[in-house]
Amino acid sequence: MPRIVVKEGSRPPWVGLAAAVWVELSAGNAYNFPLYSSTLKSVLGFSQQQVTLLGIANDIGENVGLLPGIACNIFPPWTVLFMGVVLCFFGYGLLWLVVSQTIETLPFWLLFLALAVATNSNAWFSTAVIVTNMRNFPLSRGTVAGILKGYVGISAAVYTVLYSMVLNQSATRLLLFLALGLPVICLLMMYFIRVCTPASGEDSSVHGHFVFTQTASVLLAIYVSVISITSDLVSLSDAVSYILITIMVVFLISPLAIPIKMTLFPSNSKTTIPPAGSSDNLVREEVDSTQTDPLLTPSSSATNLGNFFENEKENDDVQMLLALAEGAVKKKRRPRRGEDFKLREAFIKADFWLLWFVYFLGIGAGVTVLNNLAQIGTALGVDDTTILLCLFSFCNFAGRLGSGAVSEHFVRSKTIPRTVWIACTQVLMVFTFLLFASALHGTLYTATALLGFCYGIIYSLLVPTSSELFGLKHFGIIYNFMLLGNPIGALLFSNQLAGYVYDAEAAKQGSSTCLGAECFRLTFLILAGVCGLGSILSVILTVRILPVYQMLYSGGSFQMPQASDH
């Protein structure tokens, strides 16, 4: 791995976090599919089945991130971001050319590929900022993950506001904005997303900075949700719309106030020296590839073998070979949970697959409802699903942000594994799907809000949990492998299960559109069982990894695990 230049100073991590907010909003571009899918269907004459397949392409592109996971360990963050810019430009650019009828209709498989390429930019954008900021704030992983993933969650509402107020609900203009606007934003932020000296988690001001950032994101979420619903109910003039958009932009740039404040009012306190074994030293250790490996230090076995040659002339080369041999033996020791794993090393760990299946079952169930929310609303008598989408988006954001903060508090104070909250969430999802299946009057909005909240919790907690169990060194590729549970869940639960049940019930009614609670009742009951299984696996995983968290957070702060010789 090439040597990476580390940006020194206390401000750069916060500048990078403020820039990451904009990149994460760009990384939510896949949420726009419902806004232009109907135009694709009408302009190109697609069937509903073809549109559903394009939805799967949307999910596959967004979540297949093995390549950016590998790239983030080889190249600096700006190159990973630049790759996302290229994919975003060409993918959405081709879709814009087709929808605007600038070029003739392309084969379906090419449009499928273009959409997958366009949304794959999300994986590159998100991987670059998540991996970089997790390394820049190693002592506050849950909080940082909650903040960044929270902005991805609220991006759907931000795009809806732009679509309604600025782009005049034009799918053609939206695709042009995605093809040109998002690459420009990420190019502007590229310089600031860089590896920095890790921020000290022991400084009391750091907690205040995180609280400010979280408060700003909550106010943004409330604001965009309110104006999104308002614009749908009331006709607003262009002047009012632009004023409201300007206020939204102010909320988005508010995290930049932290490094500005640190510049204008520098702290007089001395930098806290990180304790031995603290992950504050993590980035320095990783980037200094010239350090002497302590595993090559000769031990007692080298001395004993040296006595065997006491009658011979001492040979420095022999001594060096003995030291290297002993070092090689130590290097072959498999990493333990909490240490840095390579992907192939993580593959043979039961905890890796338990975490993967927990994520797959929970997210797969959640994305099924998200992908079919419009049809669910229609079947249950709600024609305008805008409020449902806003409700899901806001609660999704709240789950992501809240779970990061809450899990960080309890893991530090009580060494409670983050998977405890995933287990509780899966139990709540069982109740939520039973609520969906009941189809009682007024329960649709409650169930949608609960599901959005649960979806956000699982999505957010995957980030710090993966890094704590399997380390930060190869975190990018391990995390992105976990994300494969999303498109696989969408294919199995959304396309195969929900699609089959819906079409079967619609056929009974003699129509292509199904109406009534029976359209999704069986799907909801099966998904309740799926989440029940997920909760059981979550409990098993929690019991297994409890000693790991007691080791990592025994001092009230994240501590690097001590290497063992055996």
Rg, Å, rounded = 25 Å
Mean pLDDT: 81
The percent range for helix content is over 70%
| Beta strands, count | 0
End-to-end CA span: 27 Å
Q: Number of helical segments?
A: 23
From the spread of the alpha carbons, the general shape counts as: globular
Please identify the structural class as seen in this structure: mainly alpha
Q: Give start-end ranges of low-pLDDT stretches.
A: 1-5, 269-318, 320-324
Biggest sheet, in brief?
Answer: none
GO cellular component, one term: membrane
Transmembrane segments: 78-97, 109-131, 143-162, 174-193, 205-227, 239-260, 352-374, 386-407, 419-438, 444-465, 477-502, 522-543
Protein name: Nodulin-like domain-containing protein
Domain NFD4 C-terminal: 349-545
Keywords:
about 575 residues; globular
Chart the SSEs and their pairings.
Blueprint: H1 12-26, H2 33-44, H3 48-63, H4 66-71, H5 77-99, H6 108-136, H7 141-165, H8 171-189, H9 204-233, H10 238-253, H11 257-264, H12 282-287, H13 300-308, H14 316-331, H15 343-346, H16 350-371, H17 373-379, H18 386-413, H19 419-438, H20 443-470, H21 475-482, H22 485-508, H23 521-552
Helix pairs in contact: 1-6, 1-7, 1-8, 2-3, 3-6, 3-22, 5-6, 5-8, 7-9, 7-18, 7-20, 9-10, 9-18, 13-14, 16-20, 16-22, 16-23, 18-20, 19-20, 19-23, 20-21
What does it look like?
Helix content is 71%, strand content 0%. It has 566 residues and is mainly α. Mean pLDDT is 81; it is low at 1-5, 269-318 and 320-324. It has 23 helices and no strands. α20 packs antiparallel against α21. The radius of gyration is 25 Å and the shape is globular.
